[in-house]
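Section 5: illustrative case.
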């Protein structure tokens, strides 16, 4: 054995393949032979005191060398690391290696190989060795032993593994991860993520919002050009960002990677959906005078709806808009109706919602509640029969140019409608009619409002609209109910038969 080198056999678990594990502590320096220019390494005469085998403290640094358990190929796994100021520091790191290698149960070859891989990676990348206590905890939870997994790395893994979600949901997750989560917290080790990190994330989003507001109000031309197209992030979007992170972290808990989900405890504004408001006469007057719309979700009164349908009667999309206004299917669901889904020749008249058209094409409704049967009144069924005859006439006129999609609502050659084009055409009709603005989606709210005014309860309206939860229905329409109270009271009164009563003057 060379002077100053210490060979120690590891106690603890039996090494893979039964080969002994050794440690060597020694000193080296960066000096070179003046003649050959080759590194002297441990043979530099300046490493030891003259006339003694003891090491000088003012020259060179300490190294260790270890023989780790060999890999599956049985080859020697020799590793070396230097740069320690003292031999004790090198010894302590080798002690940590020993503690890491003692974690796997006897005979757990895969576990031992995973621990060895962590040690080799830390030595090769010149990063600190993982904490044995943390790795032992991970080993007991039977999870990935790598403590270097970052939040961004896990978010990528999690999203790649979500194979059963719709494309629109996946796109929403991807946007939240790419634009909001990875830039702010992506580099944080997953197991070290805290509520404080998430509070900082949303504080930075708020600061960005304030900057955008300032630039819009008083910014220079250069600042306005830089921030052109940047949108404010509202409370509802913050909730969606947190929901994405919460789902990903819950998956990490199920896999034993973390023990607690900090996204459950960070406090941000509720971001409740906007309440629906009726376009009352007073609100219409205020809109005409100022152009202000009192809510993002506005609902026409029956009189305004009737005005619109009268104005739109010559439009190719008249029946589609009437169906949404009276019975409340979503725009994409109405565009995806197939003729076999309609029962319009004999009572009871119904429409079965089985499909929807989105920007990604045809798909099933986004929830089980979306797959539903909607009743039609006799007059609406008659309109569909007339629409069928008109479509058959267009089909004959188009000849071979006709695309046989089987859809109820098509373009002039039978192809499916683009829901975005439907939205655009609706907005043009509303403007031409001089009506207070609503979105085509708000025709669903009109259908719900008409049902409530007729005395339907929220559960019935939930089924009509295909909401997955009655809470969604209640949150949207509780502000409409007081304004409909008089109409509901009158309907209830008419349902109670009364004998004629003499009336006093």
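Designed sequence:
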């Amino acid at each position: 054995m060379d002077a100053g080198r210490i060979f120690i056999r590891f106690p603890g678990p039996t090494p893979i393949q039964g080969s002994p594990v050794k440690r060597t502590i020694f000193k080296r320096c960066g000096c070179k032979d003046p003649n050959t220019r080759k590194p002297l390494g441990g043979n530099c005469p300046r490493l030891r005191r003259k006339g003694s085998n003891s090491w000088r403290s003012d020259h060179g640094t300490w190294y260790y060398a270890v023989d780790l358990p060999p890999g599956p190929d049985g080859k020697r796994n020799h590793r070396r690391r230097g740069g320690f100021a003292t031999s004790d520091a090198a010894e302590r790191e080798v002690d940590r290696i020993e503690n890491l290698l003692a974690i796997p149960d006897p005979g757990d070859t895969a576990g031992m190989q995973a621990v060895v891989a962590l040690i080799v990676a830390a030595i090769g990348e010149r990063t600190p060795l993982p904490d044995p206590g943390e790795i032992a905890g991970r080993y007991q939870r039977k999870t990935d032993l790598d403590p270097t997994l970052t939040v961004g790395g896990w978010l990528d893994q999690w999203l790649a593994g979500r194979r059963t979600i719709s494309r629109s949901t996946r796109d929403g997750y991807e946007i939240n991860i790419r634009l909001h989560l990875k830039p702010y917290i992506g580099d944080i080790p997953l197991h070290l993520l805290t509520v404080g990190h998430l509070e900082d994330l949303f504080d930075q989003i708020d600061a960005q919002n304030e900057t955008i507001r300032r630039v819009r109000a008083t910014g220079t031309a250069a600042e306005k050009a830089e921030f052109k197209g940047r949108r404010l992030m509202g409370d509802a979007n913050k909730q969606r960002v947190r929901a994405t992170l919460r789902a990903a972290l819950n998956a990490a808990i199920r896999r034993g990677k973390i023990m607690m989900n900090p996204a459950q405890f960070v406090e941000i504004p509720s971001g409740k959906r906007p309440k629906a408001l009726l376009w009352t006469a007073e609100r219409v007057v205020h809109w005409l005078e100022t152009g202000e719309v009192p809510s993002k979700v506005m609902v026409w009164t029956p009189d305004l709806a009737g005005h619109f349908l009268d104005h739109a009667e010559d439009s190719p999309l008249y029946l589609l808009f009437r169906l949404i206004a009276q019975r409340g299917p979503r725009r994409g669901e109405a565009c995806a109706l197939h003729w076999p889904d309609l029962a319009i020749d004999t009572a009871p008249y119904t429409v079965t919602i089985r499909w929807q058209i989105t920007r990604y094409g045809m798909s099933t409704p986004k929830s089980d509640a979306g797959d539903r049967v909607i009743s039609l009144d006799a007059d609406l069924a008659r309109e569909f029969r007339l629409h069928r005859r008109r479509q058959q006439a267009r089909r004959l006129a188009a000849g071979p140019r006709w695309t046989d999609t089987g859809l109820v609502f098509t373009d002039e050659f039978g192809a499916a409608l683009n829901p975005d084009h439907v939205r655009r055409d609706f907005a043009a009709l509303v403007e031409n009619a001089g009506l207070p603005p609503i979105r085509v989606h708000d025709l669903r709210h009109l259908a719900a409002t008409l049902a409530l005014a007729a005395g339907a309860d929220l559960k019935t309206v939930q089924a009509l609209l295909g909401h997955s939860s009655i809470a969604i229905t209640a949150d949207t329409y509780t502000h409409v109910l007081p304004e409909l109270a008089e109409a509901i009271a009158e309907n209830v009164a008419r349902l109670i038969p009364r004998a004629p009563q003499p009336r006093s003057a």
